[in-house]
Design brief:
7-stranded mixed β-sheet; single chain; 26% helix; 15 helices; 571 residues
Length: 571
């Protein structure tokens, strides 16, 4: 079998790199690398199942300095390659508790299967190539420790929550926080009691006092920069759980099949952040008022971001721009709940017309569009609506988005929008949607779909790109020539946007920086040029599409594009 590459990296500054280890586009691990004058510190070491992490890092940093590693906690996907480094650190109480779990070969193979989205090729490839790490020797890691790397100091803070020995790392000189699994847009805190959540919220607030509110955060499982609002969102969600405000919390389905459909595992949302908790420990119950899949937060003077969450892994981003004369909703989710308009009215009011603009015609962009007074869409995507508005097809899509959770499926079958048909008004490149005091510029970015559209809000310096710009972009229908054309499309978008623009994609509710566009352009070019020898497979989230070994993913910086290698043979 040919060599497969599961690592990618992005240079953040002269001293900081973000590496990712990815066994699918959806599930990737963040690995921080800080280069000092005397030593190099690696923060978390991934799963260690398919390659040589140290070698991947040394290709970038060189081999002239000692390289040490420190893990945020002792779970299987954070200590996998620790044995490769000159010294390894983890909280030793965590090590004692999780040794069998973190270093058991079968456990690592089982977790790989889930992280690789059941890809047989990945499992077969890694079965004889993973890092043997049972004899890893760790030194203890405690609150208040400091790694002096020479010209760079990294502070360690205890943050017990995801595990009892969880730590976060703060590089104060560049205000970068590596938060592991404790702080993320979805934080798994399944062993915390109701009273413990109150204490956890206090710890988060104390951490903010220590490091300030002006920092960039990289969590362990979503390789993109985040800000203090995520820390505050997790603190708010934790406090609400401690107060028992959990009556409408939906299931928090796991990606691990042997732990699926545990009805006690729920997710509580606050400000577009999710805390995964267990009713077994919080002694809370779901009420009879139904399930809530929607969350929102204010992100600008007139800007709100709504997310539709059917599981912790799959969410849909919906933009809301509040004008003086009307409210613009950008994309409309899957529509398996009838609450989207009412949720938006709760913060935008009911006194203005509310219109919807869809970035494309796929089912997860138009699901609730029928709830609004007018719908805008590029004419090229209108033929997609017959399929996208079909109830049975949307139920099939829900099955994947909710990770096959029976309770979510049953609830949405009874409460979803069955007839979501609508007649759109056409928009095109160069149009402007005036809202009163704020506007949306229409930018055509055909590629993912023929009518793919971005909406740029100059007053907020934010652009909604749908599926066209993300950390992972699906371009399976394109051949090499078409990938080059899409690269040009992205270049045109890049040239039209200011440097400090925030980019929102449909499937990530945190903003991307503008440089994400450049990275995707680089990925498209390399795939078109055939620089794909080591590209791993990309399994589909849809069960009926599993197992197509021609679908591959190509990494570039922290982004990737998904393509069909048979299409490359056409070019």
């Amino acid at each position: 079998m040919d060599t497969l590459n599961f690592y990618s990296h992005e240079k953040i500054s002269d001293r900081v790199y973000i590496f990712t280890e990815g066994y699918s586009a959806v599930h990737r691990f963040t690995i921080g690398v800080i280069v000092g004058d005397e030593k190099i510190l690696v923060i978390d070491t991934g799963l260690g199942m398919g390659g040589d992490l140290r070698q991947a890092i040394e290709k970038v940093t060189g081999t002239g300095k000692p390289m040490i590693c420190a893990s945020t906690h002792c779970h299987v996907d954070h200590v996998g390659s620790s044995v490769q480094f000159d010294q390894a650190y983890v909280n030793l109480e965590d090590y004692k508790r999780f040794y069998d779990f973190a270093f058991g070969e079968q456990q690592r193979l089982d977790d790989l299967k889930a992280f690789a989205m059941e890809s047989r090729e990945v499992s077969e490839y890694c079965a004889n190539r993973y890092v043997k790490n049972r004899d890893t020797v760790f030194q203890d890691l405690q609150d208040g420790d400091v790694f002096d790397l020479g010209g760079a100091r990294v502070e360690v803070y205890a943050l017990p929550g995801h595990s009892g020995g969880s730590m976060v790392f703060f590089y104060r000189a560049e205000k970068i926080l590596f938060s592991g699994d404790d702080i993320n847009t979805d934080a798994s805190l399944k062993k915390i009691t109701r009273e413990g959540f109150h204490e956890y919220a206090k710890r988060l607030k104390e951490l903010e006092k220590k490091i300030g509110d002006d920092f960039v955060m990289y969590p362990g499982h979503l390789h993109m920069p985040m800000d203090v609002q995520v820390l505050r969102g997790i603190a708010k969600a934790s406090e609400e759980i401690s107060q028992g405000m959990t009556q409408m919390d939906p299931p928090g389905e796991t990606i691990f099949s042997n732990r699926a459909n545990d009805s006690k595992i729920r997710m509580h949302m606050a400000d577009n952040c999710i805390v995964i908790y267990s009713q077994k420990f919080t002694q809370t119950q779901a009420g009879e008022a139904g399930l809530n899949f929607l969350s929102y937060e204010k992100r600008g003077e007139r800007l709100y971001i709504v997310t539709e969450n059917y599981s912790q892994a799959h969410r849909l981003t919906i933009g809301v721009v509040v004008g003086d004369d009307r409210v613009l909703v950008i994309d409309a989710g899957l529509g398996m709940t009838q609450e989207l308009r009412r949720t938006i009215e709760s913060f935008a009011g009911t006194d203005k017309p509310m219109v919807c603009a869809c970035t494309c015609g796929e089912w997860d962009h138009v699901g609730s569009a029928c709830l609004f007074d007018k719908v805008y869409m590029n004419e090229e995507d209108v033929p997609m609506l017959a399929r996208s508005c079909d109830w049975e097809r949307r139920l099939c899509a829900l099955d994947s988005y909710c990770l096959h959770n029976h309770e979510v499926q049953e609830y949405c079958f009874n409460h979803g929008i069955r007839d979501n048909s609508f007649t759109p008004e056409y928009i095109k490149e160069g149009d402007r949607l005036e809202l009163g005091g704020v506007s949306a510029q229409v930018i055509s970015i055909p590629g993912v779909t023929a009518g793919q559209t971005a909406y740029y809000i100059p007053e907020e310096k934010v652009c909604f790109c749908g599926d066209g710009v993300n950390m992972d972009v699906h371009l399976e229908k394109m051949n090499g020539k078409e990938l080059l054309l899409y690269r040009d499309v992205l270049g045109g978008l890049y040239d039209r946007l200011p440097e400090d623009v925030r980019l929102y994609s449909t499937h990530t509710n945190r903003p991307h920086p503008k440089k994400t566009i450049k990275s995707l352009m680089g990925a498209c070019l390399e795939v078109a040029e055939g620089k794909t020898e080591t590209d791993p497979p990309q399994e589909s989230m849809y069960v009926h599409l599993y197992g197509n070994r021609n679908i591959r993913l190509h990494y570039y910086d922290s982004t990737c594009v998904i393509y069909d290698r048979t299409k490359m043979e056409e070019h």
